[in-house]
């Protein structure tokens, strides 16, 4: 069966032959297409453009050439299913053209015929324009002028990434088959990738890894080629350098879009440059505020940092803090506070994908033989601490923020923290930052979360416990339950088990057994009831 179409565009032929081929390879597709196409002469040919794979089979796309020059818009597609049956094909027809005149670099379909043309691009100012101009190759007459800026940004492509990291997707801790192995164990980790939509930049026929949120660049060794493609699909194995590029770009774009949804879209007014293979292979990442605009660098030692969305979100957190209160990271406690808040951003980003182990900061990059990572929980007393480095006690401030995330939900807690950051200053202490967070709650929510936030900061003695502060014995919060250790057991009529965030089984009980929360240490757990319900339990001190 075949159909011909003669419309304002290039004439097309469409066929659905349903014939069996030897295989489903692009070679077989091209051979069938060449045999089926009625070319005017041997000067015409098909050139592979790109291919796609779908559940139904394989889709091979081709461009037409005449005398070695492209026929703009003359394309073909051949669809072969998974049983090697050629289900359908469509291609542009090509009428005879004389040999191209000097200066021609393409042919275009214009007013019902193919014309040899000269394609040029013009960049104009006041206002800025970028246009493609088509002129007749023989007479120089302008045939068409196209604004390329119409498709310069906001082109949606696809990429394969970790969401948020392979261990969370698999539900396992680091070890055994689930190790970095210098990017080699792709058979275990590649299936844990997700295919996502990704905003790209389209320029001169190529998609590039840039959007309003970030742009992939190369400004520190080792030097790695940044991919661009005529196809909008950027599918890489984690062993390919392009994987870290699209992974970082996707997660930064996700956070950037979230800022807008939370009402803080004006906080970041530039696309942050990122080099995902920096520091000459060292295990290090950084936010560089000395450049204009500031930029991010991710190292490749141990687990590649840009493979872990916690690292990406943490470093972007520095950019957010710098945007809100630039050049205020002065003083050891202020620097430690900065790290703690960036750890919170990592936790919040991870939590929204899956709460499991969200308090294990740098879940994939750390907590392994390369380094110990960091935690978002703490039992420390702020009043007993001495700040000797910016990393010495990040957990003491990250803990109440994480508790706020659990009790208020990520949307509310993120907004409160983002609002508070605009008031940060040099040499600020953690109690001062906590008070700014309470002030932000007042500004945004009329102080309705003040008691809960105060309680979380008081648990670490960052703020003094309020006299007469009433703790509710049981509060059902966002995706979980927060209880003091003196509360009654919350599931008296259910069998169940309690698991720590690292997967260890902490307690198994039956409904006819006596049990108390005082038997459970402070911290966060996953409770699995006999009916299959999963509940996050956070046990806090106090009565």
Q: State the helix count.
A: 10
Helix content: 10-25%
Q: Which structural class do the helices and strands define?
A: alpha+beta
Overall mean pLDDT: 85
At the fold tier of CATH, the topology name of the largest domain is: Elastase, domain 1
Question: Which overall shape is indicated by the principal axes computed on the Cα atoms?
Answer: elongated
Rg over CA atoms: 29 Å
Low-confidence stretches: 1-8, 148-154, 467-479
Strand content: 25-35%
Known CATH architecture of the largest domain: Roll
Number of domains: 3
CATH class call of the largest domain: Alpha Beta
Note the gap between the termini: 79 Å
Task: Kindly list the characteristics that best describe this protein.
seven-stranded antiparallel beta sheet, alpha+beta, six-stranded mixed beta sheet, Elastase, domain 1, disordered N terminus, 24% helix
Explain what the structure shows:
With 543 residues, the protein is of the alpha+beta class. The chain has 3 domains: 2-145, no CATH class; 152-324, Roll (Elastase, domain 1), CATH 3.10.170.10; 475-540, no CATH class. The longest helix has 22 residues, at 332-353. It contains 10 helices and 28 strands. It starts with a strand and ends with a strand. Strands 1, 2, 3, 4, 5, 6 and 7 form a 7-stranded antiparallel sheet that branches. A 6-stranded mixed sheet has the order 23-24-28-27-25-26. Strands 16-14-13-12-17 form a 5-stranded mixed sheet, covered by helices on one side. It has helices at residues 26-36, 166-170, 186-189, 241-261, 309-324, 332-353, 394-408, 410-421, 430-445, 450-459; strands at 2-5, 12-15, 19-20, 44-54, 57-66, 69-81, 85-92, 106-110, 113-124, 129-136, 142-147, 155-161, 194-203, 206-208, 214-216, 228-229, 233-234, 272-275, 285-288, 295-298, 360-361, 374-375, 475-477, 480-484, 496-500, 505-509, 523-529, 534-540.
């Amino acid at each position: 069966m075949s159909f011909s179409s003669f419309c304002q565009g290039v004439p097309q032929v469409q066929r659905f032959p349903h014939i069996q081929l030897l295989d489903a390879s692009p070679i077989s597709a091209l051979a069938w297409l060449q045999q089926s196409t009625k070319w005017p002469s041997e000067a015409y040919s098909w050139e592979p453009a790109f291919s796609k794979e779908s559940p139904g089979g394989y889709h091979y796309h081709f461009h037409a050439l005449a005398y070695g020059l492209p026929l703009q818009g003359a394309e073909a597609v051949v669809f072969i299913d998974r049983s090697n049956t050629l289900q359908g094909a469509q291609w542009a027809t090509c009428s005879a053209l004389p040999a191209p005149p000097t200066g021609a670099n393409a042919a275009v379909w214009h007013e019902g015929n193919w014309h040899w043309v000269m394609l040029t691009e013009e960049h104009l100012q006041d206002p800025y324009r970028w246009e493609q101009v088509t002129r007749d190759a023989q007479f120089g007459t302008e045939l068409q002028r196209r604004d390329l800026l119409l498709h310069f940004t906001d082109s949606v492509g696809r990429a394969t990434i970790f969401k948020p990291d392979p261990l969370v997707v698999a539900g396992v801790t680091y070890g055994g088959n689930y190790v970095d192995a210098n990017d080699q164990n792709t058979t275990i980790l590649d299936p844990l990738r997700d295919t996502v939509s990704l905003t790209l930049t389209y320029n001169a026929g190529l998609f590039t890894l840039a959007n309003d949120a970030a742009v992939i660049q190369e400004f520190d060794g080792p030097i790695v080629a940044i991919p661009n493609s005529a196809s909008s699909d950027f599918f890489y194995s984690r062993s390919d350098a392009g994987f870290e590029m699209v992974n970082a770009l996707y997660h930064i774009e996700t956070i950037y879009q979230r800022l807008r949804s939370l009402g803080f879209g004006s906080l970041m007014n530039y696309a942050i440059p990122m080099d995902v293979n920096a520091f000459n292979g060292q295990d290090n990442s950084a936010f560089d505020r000395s450049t204009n605009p500031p930029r991010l660098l991710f190292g490749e030692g141990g687990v590649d940092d840009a493979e872990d969305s916690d690292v990406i979100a943490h470093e972007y957190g520095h950019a957010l803090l710098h945007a809100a209160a630039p050049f205020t990271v002065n003083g050891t406690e202020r620097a430690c506070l900065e790290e703690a808040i960036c750890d919170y951003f990592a936790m919040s980003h991870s939590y929204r994908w899956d709460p499991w182990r969200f308090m294990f900061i740098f879940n994939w990059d750390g907590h392994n033989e390369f380094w110990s990572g960091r935690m978002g929980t703490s039992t420390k007393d702020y009043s007993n601490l001495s700040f000797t480095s910016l990393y010495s006690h990040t957990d003491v401030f990250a803990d109440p923020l994480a508790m706020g995330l659990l009790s208020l939900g990520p949307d509310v807690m993120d907004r409160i923290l983002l609002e508070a950051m605009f008031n940060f200053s040099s040499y600020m202490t953690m109690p001062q930052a906590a008070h700014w967070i309470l002030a932000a709650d007042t500004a945004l929510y009329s102080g309705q979360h003040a008691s809960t936030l105060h309680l979380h900061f008081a648990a670490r003695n960052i703020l003094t416990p309020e006299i007469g502060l009433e703790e509710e014995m049981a509060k059902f919060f966002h995706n979980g339950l927060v209880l003091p250790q003196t509360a009654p057991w919350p599931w008296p009529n259910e069998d169940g088990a309690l698991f720590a965030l690292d997967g260890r089984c902490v307690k198994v009980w039956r409904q006819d057994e006596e049990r108390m929360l005082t038997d459970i240490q402070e911290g966060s757990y996953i409770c699995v009831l006999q009916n299959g319900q999963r509940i996050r339990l956070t046990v806090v001190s106090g009565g």
